[in-house]
Known about the structure:
The complex is a heterodimer.
Chain A: E1 11-19, E2 30-33, E3 38-41, E4 47-53, E5 56-63, E6 70-76, E7 80-86, H1 92-101, E8 111-115, H2 116-120, H3 127-131, E9 137-142, E10 146-151, E11 159-163, E12 166-167, E13 188-193, H4 197-200, E14 207-212, E15 221-231, E16 236-246, E17 253-264, E18 267-268, E19 273-274, E20 279-292, E21 295-309, H5 319-327, E22 346-363, E23 366-382, E24 400-418, E25 421-438, E26 444-459, E27 463-482, E28 485-487, E29 490-507, E30 510-521, H6 525-529, E31 531-534, E32 539-542, E33 550-562, E34 566-592, E35 595-619, E36 624-637, E37 642-643, E38 651-662, E39 666-678, E40 697-710, E41 713-722, E42 746-759
Parallel strand pairs in A: 1-7, 11-14, 32-35
Antiparallel strand pairs in A: 1-4, 2-3, 2-5, 5-6, 8-13, 9-10, 11-12, 13-14, 15-16, 15-42, 16-17, 17-20, 18-19, 20-21, 21-22, 22-23, 23-24, 24-25, 25-26, 26-27, 27-28, 27-29, 29-30, 30-33, 31-32, 33-34, 34-35, 35-36, 36-37, 36-38, 38-39, 39-40, 40-41, 41-42
Chain B: H1 2-18, E1 45-52, E2 58-64, E3 75-76, E4 84-87, E5 92-101, E6 108-109, H2 110-115, E7 122-127, E8 138-142, E9 148-151, E10 157-160, H3 166-169, E11 179-183, E12 193-201, E13 220-231
Parallel strand pairs in B: 4-13
Antiparallel strand pairs in B: 1-2, 1-5, 2-3, 5-6, 5-11, 7-12, 8-9, 9-10, 10-11, 12-13
Amino acid sequence: xxxxxxxQCALSLxxxxxxxxxxxxxxYSIVTLAELNQTTTTNRHGRxxxxxxxxxxxxxxxxxxxxxxxxxxxxxxxxVKLQIxxxxxxxxxxxxxxxxxxxxxxxxQVVSELSGAELDKTKGQSxxxxxxxxxxxxxxxxxxxxxxxxxxxxxxxRILILNNGIRQEGQQWGNEHAPEIDxxxxxxxxxxxxxxxxxxxxxxxxxxxLVEPGDLPDTASVTGEVNLAGFSNGKTGAASAxxxxxxxxxxxxxxxxxxxxxxxGTVRTPSYFxxxxxxxxxNFSYTLGYHYKKVGVEVYYSQFNTIxxxxxxxxxxxxxxxxxxxxxxxxxxxxxAFSYEIDKPYQDIAHELAKxxxxxxxxxxxxxKLQYAWQYxxxxxxxxxxxxxxxxxxxxxxxxxxxxxxxTMEGLIEHDNIRSFRGQFGAxxxxxxxxxxxxxxxxxxxxxxxxxxxxxRYVKQHFEFEAGLRYDSKSLQSYYYNNNQLVSPLLKxxxxxxxxxxxxxxxxxxxxxxxVGSAWRAPAPNELYSNGIHHxxxxxxxxxxxxxxxxxxxxxxxxxxxxxxxxxxxxxxVNKFENYIYLDPSGKSELTIRxxxxxxxxxxxxANISGIDAQVNLKIxxxxxxxxxxxxxRGWNESIxxxxxxxxxxxxxxxxxxxxxxxxxxxxxxVQMNAQYVCKQWRIPEGGDFASPPGEYLLAxxxxxxxxxxxxxxxYVGFSVTNLLNTVYRDYLDRFRYYADAQGRSYNVRLRIPLxxxxxx
Amino acid sequence: MKTIIILLSFFxxxxxxxxxxxxxxxxxxxxxxxxxxxxxxxxxxxxxxxxDSITNTxxxxxxSDPDGDGAQPGSFSNNGTDSSFVLMPDRTYFCKLYFLDExxxxxxxxxxxxxxxxxxxxxxxxxxxxxxxxNYGNVILAQSPNYAVQLNGSxxxxxxxxxxxxxxxxxxxxxxxxxxxxxxxxxxxxxxYPLRIALRHQPGTEANSSAKDGTYAPGSTDVEITFKVGVY
Lengths: 761, 232
């Protein structure tokens, strides 16, 4: 307490500005001391300070975008710290902007994101590999070039991927089918872990992956970015460029063009090359947006094209071949050399997406959103098997050829903050048509799914409560030949899902989240109708047309801590499944002309998938951080009292990061060492596999990055070495583990060049 | 103006870049899936003709899988009794293998092509106990062009009598195994031993069209059936 001599004008007036409704810290609030004509803006935490003030009466004007101007009278006798809570403004226009700038309602489930520098580190990698940086996410691989994301051990139709807001529809049933998305379009990759069917409908059982581009500019400018990445293993290079702008003459229009090219050759294990593991990718997209007062419209078109070679040594003719391959210490063609050539077997996939969406603020705090999308996915797979007398100069006909067209339509009405309630009401419809040429594995089908949902959230400063309900109806009409007879069975599925969650926020440093929900998915075409040898796996798979929808009841509890020296996130979840669909080893073999094959049947059972994801970030000294991550997953089949197949083993990762500045030229520098330990997966079902799972392994890596500033141009550079110790290992979640080791060491470099062609600001 | 030029060139570049590869126009109707015709040859039947060199009588043992490696299982002919047979000890037999495609009319004898034009990328392997390691239960007695093996268990010595068209394609002369001589030793007892016959298809790459090197390892299996044979 000061006993101020009049000459001592050393008092301070500081404070924090927060949103009255949800307690969010308001950055960029303008705080003005009228008497002294001094103005300051609040920082990231909403804090401001005025120093060297004399005692007296002051009027403080606090302004924030979307909030009501507030005047506070302060009688300053001693230094004070104010807590200022701003209510929302009633003005229509600012409501619009506030709703636009507010992200879609935060979840009562944990949302993990990769953005900024953390996302930059993953440039050049596939989507699955990039997402591995998020705790709880692993990949199911078909070698190093085909990577499918897995959340808590679940993949395929148990995960929903939203590509720029549209559900990605292709042939998700195949373990060897990677999502056809160019991660270069994303400014942010997010993963919502947990049952999420309310908002998105079927398939969001383990969670939702969102691939989101950045916002289009809204001031006259043309900016962009060029990204280059190179990887020594596979001599892979990727280049991507984005250009976005806001037309100067044509006001209210903004646009973006983007393109990516990626080319890679033979991947190498520590001891040998894996022949025919090259990849080529050519992608591009265009966006055009229009925004005027209460209306916004956007159209988007993207194309993804890839040809990816499949390791030749991974072809198993029959069980004998598979067992022989597994018992070999080196694959037969271990003398293969490096090449960019892609030969049979390979996959040739193209994915087109065209979407249009619009939003309209039809009343204060109310918004209507409409979205339509059209997708066409064509997937051709060329086997190693060459028919008896095929000439090599005849144009190859694909062995498997599927084309699936999906149209999705969605309408949504959202309201913001009415008596502390925020909510959404929506309806969606999808029409899908799948045709095949070539060999039968899944039938032709027509799929019509529609759904409607309502969700409301009650938001207060220290807690939030949410509840939601959804109804879905799906009809699946398939066409295929059974014993030379054309059949066209019709199946119908109906599901109601619900969700309820709570967030407790005692202060800004700690959040406790709890969520209870349900989700569903209809059986996949291969689970219903496959019948015959699943080539490349050495097994006969029999579908089951009586399968019902799979349902899950999920409970998740998470705690998020953000303090100065430590931040941590820990989540525990339990998934109880009804009618979990799985491949059951029958124990019997069937004779075909190609030999004896074990038979697997698709069955349903009650199952359980539970686990814990944890991440801790510790600031040891001011520039030194220690990051530790851990993931534990347990999958159990209640009906046969045995483990579930393909669950990821327990794993942990430790990172040590040192950040520093070096003169003016090199800023934002960091050096980091990583070590990841993956346990052996011994929790496997009996008879469910041909070979025992591979052993545990340790992978080490180093990385470094810097920002070089040359005049006005910045250049972000990053180096890394993955599998630094050239560890020889095989991963349980890699189909190639029967045949070969995983990738060896790779030296990688990446470059990001932000461009400002012109900026009126 | 500059922006428009940049945009236009981008549109043009990306269109040229990827080409118009969409086959949408040629997509068939959804309610008309392709009927299961097999334009490619598939092997549906294997026949082993065994001729006793002394009596000159011929016995045929067969295996048939009507849809190749499709959904329906295959089986040994004559209600399954063809799965096993007995040979006399100390006797020489001449054997011929036929591979047929019985989905075609008239029946297509694929072994003709395998023995002829396609010989340089095919080889047949006769193995003893399929679960044995190391040479799959064989003792290799001689290499091509006089390839001979001795099977474990039954102790049958199999000599290959045919030659492939390797030299015509620029490769070493090797055997195929459609025509063989079986020489039985003294009886090892009345037990039945495995006789596994595998047709290996061993094409190479576009650069090097044959991967055939006289061993089982390269390529993949087109046919694999296991008989049970006794020598007594």
